[in-house]
Write a structure and sequence with these properties.
537 residues; alpha/beta; five-stranded mixed sheet
Amino acid sequence: MKKKVISTLMATAMVTSLLAGCSSSSSTPDAGTTEAPEAESTETATEETAETATEETTEAAEDTAEAETPVEEKAADGATTINVYRCTFNLANPDSEQVQKVEDAINAYIAGKIPVQIKLTDVGSGEYTDKANLALANNEINLLWTASWEGTIGTNDLVPANAVYDLSDILPGTDLYNSMDEGQWEAAKYDGKMYFVPVYKDNVEGYDFMFRQDLIDQHNWDISSVKELKDLEPMLADAKADGLKYPFLTQKTAMFYRWYIDKFDFFTADSATNFVAVDRASDEVVDTILTPEYKEFCTLMGEWADKGYISEDDYTKVTTDTTTQTQDWAVSWWTDIPVNDEADARYGQDVTMQPATNRWAHSTSALGSCYCVTANSTPEQAKACVDFLGLLYTDSTLADMYTFGIEGEDFTYDANHQVTQTSEKYNHSMWESASATIVTPLDNEPANKAELYKDFNGGANTSSAAGFRFDKTPVESQYAACANVSGEYGFNLENGGVPASDVESTIEAYQAALDEAGYQDVLAEFQKQYDEWKASK
């Protein structure tokens, strides 16, 4: 099957086509998926160049995948061995020796409980997408951590690429399935099928302003007065006067689709395609680039960059996922969760949140952190993955080991049996590991964390577009081309990379480039599918 180049750079596009290659050589006929919506993708160069590069790269990838289709491994005791790939956000570079020790400890612990052994690969977030994508192409993964917001290997990429195993017939009745209520499974379904296993956490979406507490104390900031972005200006001025490098740290993220979630449902859940959304007031699909809100936001970002509140390091992508662990910034953003104090441990300093948006339940919120079984897995490997996750989601000892590492080396339990993390070698968080109901709370978190999560998820607004997923197949090439245009214009506009005086003309150029790429076809198809979905409700 002919594949499209789906990346912003040709080199990355070649990596991405490997994902397509691995998905087309599944070792079991029933392990694949049907074509499905919402691959988050962009297209490079001209269509003719992309087609040529794609055909050559995909053929090479498929040849490689076919040649390296894995033989199912059995441990000496007959247990099925599965390859687990996960991403670490708390460390720039996980320590491979410590990861091996954690793997060994996990295998020793689960040996008498389930007939499964794991091979654990832990990859820093800066390299995760590329490394996991290559491993997928080489059929080296059985159980993969992913998310709706991930690029290239996100949920909206894996399903259309036929790279995930349909677990619909395996999950019901298992310990894993029974570990969460049916509402979670319904919310996590993709095209009505169970491709993904959600991490039970904050499965709704909302955002906060995040402040360093020492600066609040130093300047006596009243953060309760901050209701919207422009209210931050006095604090950013103080931070600039203090000589901080990043008064406002965007974390190199195009944030329009997050800061304006109360106004729009960005159901693509992708900053690269936030050029279309459902207007919550009218319940209609709109071109967000032409809205007053988009101009307002990009102008403010441009003004802040002009004033030195936003550094060029953000729009040139020099900042990293660990910049928030430094004291070079004053204000940033945070995804709202039931226990926001978790950020203190993640960033190694006292930070305080102020709500910026409401919380919303929508089509992708339950997939903000999840696992999937890869389509190249055998039925035995798929069952082993489900068995492992079933134990991980119900056994606190295993969940703590998988999340925090080796007791006495990577963490300790305090007198209240809460976790103190002590390691720079192995360090994960609950949200990307296992269920909030089973992972032991950190020492700076409330003991009733599990109940707080249940209340948090139950207190969100439900989007009018919840349940809708866009099938981009009818306009796939135009959609990819528009995403590429968004990467060229949108990222800079939303990260202060365009001076305020040039924002209006740049937005006009952005829209013109979108239209040239086929945007009006995409917009019409979005509207058509959304109208049909509403009529079917």
